[in-house]
């Protein structure tokens, strides 16, 4: 995890350096440079990277750029040898505050407390996952969206939006209705989309229930709906929970809607771990420059 976060930090740094014009190709030598003295060379045929160390700010930018290029090389499958100049100390470390817990809003797609949808959110909230806390959100009080007659947000909607602003990510839990999302889920997204910052840039994961495909078709429709509000869904794992009950398939929920199937519980845990690992580097990239390099 620490290595992944450090590589993410370096990749963010190199991207910012390119955007700012500090890191660029020079001449016809296919060389990325940041000036003259005290160079770091990446020994790869046809490519050399140079960094100037004239101030602490430039040093930090250079180091972040080098680590970002190293990450890019790893991602492309190429082997990159790093030769550090004598004047270069250690690579930058990720701020400790980056390791604070990721807050996930658990959003059920049904109103009943005894529903499988609500039961999965309760089960998720009880899981112990390092670096993550899941907080259920209440969708039962949201009115049906009607902005034409009520241009101002009702108090229940405003409170819901304020709660969602605190979340870094969203776990959607809902059944498939006619191959699509439930009206509860769509209504919640439609309200939130009227205040773009409540959803834009957030990450999301889905767990669905259903008889045949475990609500799988709903998941793909939900991903499509999330494009306009700028949600970023994880791709794997995909968790579809079949609610069919017969001689070969015992019930996965009790009469109160609580999850009793340990296989589904393990899948839910892996889903949240993947959501955490997907959210952390994106949150770091989005927030560190706004807060002098410290994740809030």
UniProtKB/TrEMBL annotation:
Q: Pfam families recorded for this chain?
A: FMN_red (PF03358), PsbQ (PF05757)
Listed under GO biological process in this entry are:
photosynthesis
- Give the enzyme's EC designation: 1.6.5.2
- Which superkingdom, per the lineage? Eukaryota
Any one GO cellular component localisation term in the record: cytosol
Query: Which residue range or ranges hold the NADPH-dependent FMN reductase-like domain?
Result: 105-244
Q: Which reaction does it catalyse?
A: a quinone + NADH + H(+) = a quinol + NAD(+); a quinone + NADPH + H(+) = a quinol + NADP(+)
Q: Which GO terms describe its molecular function?
A: calcium ion binding; FMN binding; NAD(P)H dehydrogenase (quinone) activity
Q: What protein am I looking at?
A: NAD(P)H dehydrogenase (quinone)
Q: Which organism is it from?
A: Sesamum alatum
């Amino acid at each position: 995890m620490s290595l992944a976060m450090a590589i993410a930090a370096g990749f963010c740094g190199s991207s910012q350096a390119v955007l700012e014009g500090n890191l660029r190709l020079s001449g016809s030598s296919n060389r990325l440079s940041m000036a003259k003295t005290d160079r770091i060379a990446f020994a790869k045929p046809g490519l050399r990277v140079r960094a100037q160390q004239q101030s602490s700010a430039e040093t930090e930018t250079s180091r972040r750029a080098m680590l970002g290029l190293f990450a890019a090389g790893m991602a492309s499958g190429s082997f990159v040898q790093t030769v550090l100049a004598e004047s270069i100390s250690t690579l930058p470390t990720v701020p400790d505050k980056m390791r604070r817990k990721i807050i996930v809003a658990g959003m059920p797609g049904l109103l009943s407390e005894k529903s499988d949808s609500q039961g999965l959110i309760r089960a998720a909230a009880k899981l112990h996952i390092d670096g993550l806390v899941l907080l259920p959100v209440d969708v039962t009080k949201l009115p049906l969206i009607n902005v034409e007659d009520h241009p101002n947000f009702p108090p229940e909607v405003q409170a819901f939006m304020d709660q969602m602003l605190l979340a870094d990510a969203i776990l959607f839990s809902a059944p498939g209705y006619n191959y699509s999302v439930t009206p509860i889920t769509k209504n919640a997204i439609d309200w939130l989309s009227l205040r773009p910052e409540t959803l834009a840039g957030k990450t999301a994961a889905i767990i669905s229930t259903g008889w045949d495909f475990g609500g799988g078709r709903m998941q793909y429709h939900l991903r499509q709906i999330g494009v306009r509000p700028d949600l970023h869904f994880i791709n794997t794992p995909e968790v579809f929970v079949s609610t069919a009950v017969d001689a070969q398939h015992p019930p996965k929920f009790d009469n109160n809607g609580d999850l009793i199937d340990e296989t589904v519980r393990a899948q839910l845990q892996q889903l949240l771990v993947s959501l955490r690992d997907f959210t952390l580097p994106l949150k770091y990239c989005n927030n560190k420059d706004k807060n002098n390099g410290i994740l809030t």
